[in-house]
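Run: sequence + N,N-dimethyl-L-histidine -> complex structure.
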Amino acid sequence: TVAPERAPATHRTAHGERATIADITAGLLAPQAATSPKYLYDSLGSRLFEAICELPEYYPTRTEASIFARHGADIARRVGTGSTLIDLGAGNCAKAASLFPLLQPKQYVPIDISREFLNEAVGRLQQRFPHIAMMALALDLAGHFALPAGVEAQRRVFFYPGSSIGNFAPHEAIAFLRRVRENASHDGGLLIGVDLIKDAAVLDSAYDDAIGVTAAFNLNMLRHLNYLLGADFDVRQWQHVAFFNAEESRVEMHLEARTSLTVQWQGGERHFARGDRIHTEDSYKYTRESFADLLAQAGFTADGNWTDDAGWFAVMHARA
Ligand code: AVI
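>> structure
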């Protein structure tokens, strides 16, 4: 067997952080163990997510891209050109970059939790588009956020593609979109991708693909927790579980213990019986109507939406 990775006892995360350790510990010790999906994204996790986006089963990325390809001109008319494009959860920045010819932003502000990944991507992008001012921000958008003075105050267009909004519970999504709106100017807006409710079999295989990339993405969280907490998760003792929960209108991802085991980390220990799970992610699915309602609850005014022929995914524009 391979020895689990151990972080040195003195290790603290990049943000300093006893708060991170306390937060993860509380989740792991809760009656239903759970972790925030943000811990899926260390540098390997971000790369695995990029790979997921290329899988035939994972329709959201290519369906959203097909909507932009087909309705780009119409979308650009609504959004307008010359704006400050603020990319929430930018990752490799590829989606926003593909819209630069259409939206012609004056300034581009990509935001992502993973600084290392973001800096690499923006460095490459700035060379390709030297005339667009770029300002990369490493921020965790889960909390309150305020944009620094260097971000142009007028015509802020927030870009939130890929249905990342689905990784918040609906009440959190409303709170998040309210914070986005607070950071938008009166003439600002939001361009957002939303995954729609569909046949459960399509959803199940999108989150449990044949070659196991999503399984690796989910299991990689345990390596990340070993690093963050100095924990001793043995990845081989866990398996990926994902399914559509129709009642809650969400795909759930879990890590399930394959055997009876005990995990120890700085400040905590828990026994898991075989079959016990750690709930690692929810991915909520909406209808266009239910999402327009959510936008309204966040104070936005819906202003156009576009979808693919099968009605699997929607791109929506809203005014602040
Ligand atoms: C980033 N987010 C929108 C993805 C999703 O579909 O919820 C994350 C993901 N989880 C498993 N596969 C992809």
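>> summary
The two ends are 55 Å apart (CA to CA). The first helix runs from residue 18 to 29.
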